[in-house]
Backbone:
């Protein structure tokens, strides 16, 4: 597939629509994936049989396994997905067989402020319209499974309040006594819809009840999404769904989806969603796109199954984790790799002149507003001051025993002196290399240097180690993350949080890993603290359980799980022509 | 494809899973559909390019066009889908090339009381699991498009209350002044979830508003679903979406999805949903499955596009309409055929001994409870008394100038004398023929007689005529349906209904057809009035507008648009094994 590059670079959708796509079955067979394991969904998308990655010990380990993470980003994002795609294309340019493994983006933000999420410029996943809208319906399946469970809980409360013990016995059931104030599951929708953040349900007459205050999250925040991302096969998916704690009874005992007899139907709804999706890069490499758990309240990584498959069919598997190395990468290591059994070989840490200047004290960066001059003109002082953030992130990567390559995602306004400053600081802080990458403007050609640097860094034997053993108490694990990853002086638990931790230990959930829920804009819990904050303590307001996903998530600060639409939302630009061709999706 | 029949007949899912499926691309090419118009979604489902049916004048008219309807059903249903599939299989047995065109069922009821909806016994659409769960995601796409529009309206109310006229002008927008009490769109979810019938949204802080009472419908009740079903091509879909009246401003003027600049994005979300899905019958015929609008508040028919495609590639297209001839069939003729330009050739009216006995005064028939003896033993008196309902339905079909064949959907407890009684009454009432059909137990072999009778009835030239011209006033059209179809003495409009009718006429909506919303259990508005009620008047409580779908729908009686889950819901039986094979879906 050849794509003719233009300068200035056209819009993402113009580039994507000008590409000549290869048939996805050809991409799959090029990787050596058996035809019987490939289900085409139209000519350019396929689902791949999850059985190919079902058991880690059986899957032939072939690939070097690369994680792409970033420094603490600005609200504009620093181009992690674009770099992931660019790096895979760069590997292509140096003659290596590489695939990408990415998250499927939530559809809600596509219509809000964010636009597309399939990479950008000449480093994109195509068809980008499908990538951004529905794909093969996996997020919808997650929503349906989640909402079935939520409906099951409310319906049970209704029927138990209405009918006798004897009536339930006659049906072969016994009462669960769910506490209407103890429901632990809300509802979800894949939409930015602020008015659903806090709702009252069950109004009307008795048969429309129970009357309760409740909430909606965006679908990717569902525990079901985290479960789908971490499941190793169908049986594991089924039993994880069953373990979800979705309510508490009137005595405070946890009630699971299994107790409500709904986990089997939830698994049936997810039978196709368990199969990873295969798409392609603009330069014809395979790209697995599968699952998209939230990166703050969940672990923010694409699926275990996709990666397990991918490592069997490529020399390099490049996978992105959510937000910065303190967030998605730490969870990638301590949660996802622990589930998958896969061992990472190298990390690519994406940095931009823009974000480093912001960490050095630059003015606020706001989506939808023009960038202040500090960001578009050379400013070595701001940049130098911001380098603390880069150094801290490199320290986090080193803590896990993995070599790091810094990818300087270039912008047209950057200067050579600025790049040199970053490179020097990165090498001083222990990076294997630091390379300017021009994949947005030049595709794989612009990332060939980066690919060579990553090849070199990943060549050795991995000395990967987890941050903590599962045997630590929940409190110890939280303190270790706060101290060794975030650089906090300690952790302050509210009384409620401490009580929950004690209860979870006594209920047998103490051996689960930790999935921290905090802001991505700072290494601390406070988005205003830039660079590498020192002399602060991490406040844990609340602790929640995701027993099916298999982690405990402490909440540090305000975490929104339902975005809103802005005053001039992105949907206003989107349209179709008479042939169904989409425009205005950026 | 050969399927070995067993006696007693196994469960639906056992039969479906024992079938050897043909590759769907083979089914498509067998029909002569060009390969370039076929997108496989896995090996056994395909989407067919809507362009094949895009323009009625261009589509080669080839097939006889058969509608399957029924007498007024019991809450158990009388086997209309099963008969539709059986008839197609029956045509196969007599050497004819037939396809089915069916609605996609809502997924919600699958988990409630209803179970599967892909036919039954040896007359089913397969794969039945996919038919019942997600299929290719069209209903999810409808939900997303609908909910995007709902979020857009609430977000606009929020932002207009917060920002100045000048701020909107700077963004190139002007205020619409939507009335928070004039929002005409709720939200939807494809789930039986009673607590969502009446909700309060927008609680929390100001940024989580506006605070309003609102509601959720099940997704198939969305106007977007009706629009998708009636659209003739992408441009028509796009402009219908734009015409949806989703709110009123503070002066009472209608505001459309176009005014909110969201119709283009909605169309983008539906670009694949516009393509009909192709599946297969147990005996290897093609079955188009596309769109599933509610049969009471909407028109209850599968898509115009699927039928337009189907008539170009088969000798017989058999399509089902919702509920009885007073409901789905009348709307099939006056709404769907008016949109499609297709002219029906014959009607199959499904009747059962059970339903006719219920109309004759038999005891109540309740889902989940054993049938009273009156229904399982010969009872010619009850049956004879119920024949008025059959006669009335045959009168309705005759009113449209179309020949009717009565299909007696047989049950093991029926007797020959009962069948004879039905046949005599049917012929007396003007049916072309009346045939006992055993497709449930015997597949196509059991429906070969029915197919022959339908072939004969459809052989002549169609003398089809609409019930009313669009030039009639809305009130005249409603009165004509009530009088000539339902047998009412007249119509009683509430003051509110009369006022709405007047307003709609003055706003230019007076030339739309009527889509009556009433119970399916009686020819009247009162489910308790069995047989052919006489001496009653139809009360119209309220009148609503579906400007995008292109009809006005008067509400007669209580119509629920959000089912609930029963005390022992069907989801409790459903599970998957380690390979992802589904069980317990009936």
Residues:
């Amino acid at each position: 597939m050849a794509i003719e590059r233009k300068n200035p670079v056209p819009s993402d959708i113009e580039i994507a629509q000008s590409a000549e796509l290869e048939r996805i079955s050809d991409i799959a067979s090029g990787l050596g994936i058996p035809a019987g394991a490939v289900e085409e969904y139209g000519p350019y998308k396929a689902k791949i049989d999850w059985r190919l990655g079902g058991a880690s010990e059986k899957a032939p380990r072939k690939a070097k396994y690369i994680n792409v993470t970033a420094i603490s980003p600005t609200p504009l994002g620093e181009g992690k997905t674009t770099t992931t795609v660019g790096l895979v294309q760069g590997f292509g340019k140096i003659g290596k067989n590489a695939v990408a493994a990415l998250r499927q983006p939530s559809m809600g933000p596509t219509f809000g402020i964010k636009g597309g999420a399939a990479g950008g410029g000449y480093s994109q996943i195509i068809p980008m319209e499908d990538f951004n809208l529905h794909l093969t319906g996996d997020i919808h399946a997650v929503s349906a499974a989640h909402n079935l469970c939520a409906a099951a809980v409310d319906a049970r409360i209704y029927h138990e309040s209405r009918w006798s013990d004897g009536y339930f016995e006659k049906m072969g059931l016994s009462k669960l006594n769910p506490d209407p104030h103890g429901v632990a599951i809300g509802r979800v929708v894949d939409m930015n819809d602020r008015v659903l953040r806090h709702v009252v349900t069950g109004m009307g007459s008795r048969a429309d009840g129970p009357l309760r205050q409740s909430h909606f999250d965006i679908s990717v925040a569902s525990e079901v999404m985290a479960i789908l991302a971490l499941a190793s096969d169908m049986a594991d998916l089924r039993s994880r769904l069953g373990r979800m704690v979705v309510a508490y009874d009137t005595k405070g005992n946890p009630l699971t989806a299994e107790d409500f007899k709904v986990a089997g139907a939830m698994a049936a709804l997810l039978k196709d969603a368990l199969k990873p999706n295969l798409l392609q890069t603009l330069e014809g490499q395979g790209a697995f796109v599968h699952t998209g758990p939230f990166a703050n309240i969940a672990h923010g990584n694409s699926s275990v199954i996709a990666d397990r498959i991918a490592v069997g069919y490529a020399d390099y598997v490049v996978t992105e984790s959510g937000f910065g190395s303190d967030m998605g990468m730490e969870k990638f290591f301590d949660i996802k790799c622990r589930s998958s059994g896969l061992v990472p070989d190298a990390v690519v840490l994406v940095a931009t002149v823009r974000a480093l200047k912001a960490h050095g004290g630059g003015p606020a960066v706001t989506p939808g507003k023009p960038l202040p001059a500090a960001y578009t003109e050379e400013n070595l002082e701001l940049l130098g001051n911001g380098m603390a953030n880069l150094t801290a992130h490199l320290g986090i990567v080193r803590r896990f025993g993995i070599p790091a390559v810094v990818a300087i995602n270039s912008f047209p306004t950057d200067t050579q002196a600025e790049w040199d400053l970053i490179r020097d600081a990165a090498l001083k802080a222990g990076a294997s290399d630091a390379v300017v990458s021009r994949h947005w403007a030049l595709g794989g050609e612009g990332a060939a240097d980066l690919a060579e640097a990553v090849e070199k860094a990943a060549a050795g034997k991995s000395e990967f180690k987890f941050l903590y053993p599962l045997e630590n108490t929940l409190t110890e694990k939280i303190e270790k993350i706060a101290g060794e990853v975030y650089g906090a002086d300690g952790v302050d638990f509210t009384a409620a949080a401490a009580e929950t931790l004690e209860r979870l230990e006594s209920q047998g959930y103490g051996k689960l890993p930790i999935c921290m829920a905090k802001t991505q804009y700072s290494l601390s819990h406070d988005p205003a603290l830039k660079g590498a904050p020192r002399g602060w303590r991490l406040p844990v307001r609340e602790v929640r359980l995701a027993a099916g996903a298999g982690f405990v998530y402490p909440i540090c600060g305000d975490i929104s799980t339902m975005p809103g639409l802005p005053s001039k939302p992105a949907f206003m630009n989107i349209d179709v022509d008479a042939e169904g061709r989409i425009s205005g999706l950026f």
In short: DSSP finds 19 helices and 25 strands in chain B. Chain B touches chain A through 87 residues (CB under 8 Å). The first strand of chain B starts at residue 38 and ends at 40.
